[in-house]
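Q: Sequence in, structure out?
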Amino acid sequence: MSDHNQDASADLLICHRCGAQLTAGEGSFYVVNIEAFADPTPPRVDSDEPVEAIAADIDDLVRRMKDFSEQELMDQVYRRLTLTLCAPCHQTWMDNPTG
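A: Exactly. Output:
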């Protein structure tokens, strides 16, 4: 494959919503970055609760976490997605991003 063909194939993209073929440099698509992270607020701890009860809660949480892979646990805390959308799909998404 020539360098020209490699460059052309590297510029071809697909809309993540409708599957339309997109070409870099034409200005016909959008790159959307979505970042989601878990509530960063520390858990509330009742100062009247015995230390043993708090430790038991932590032990229970650690025990439940053992059933998940490292990736599953990380996805529950932080996730970043990058979507490539053609202009019509981008407009639809902007009109109703949660729907």
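Residues 9-95 form one domain.
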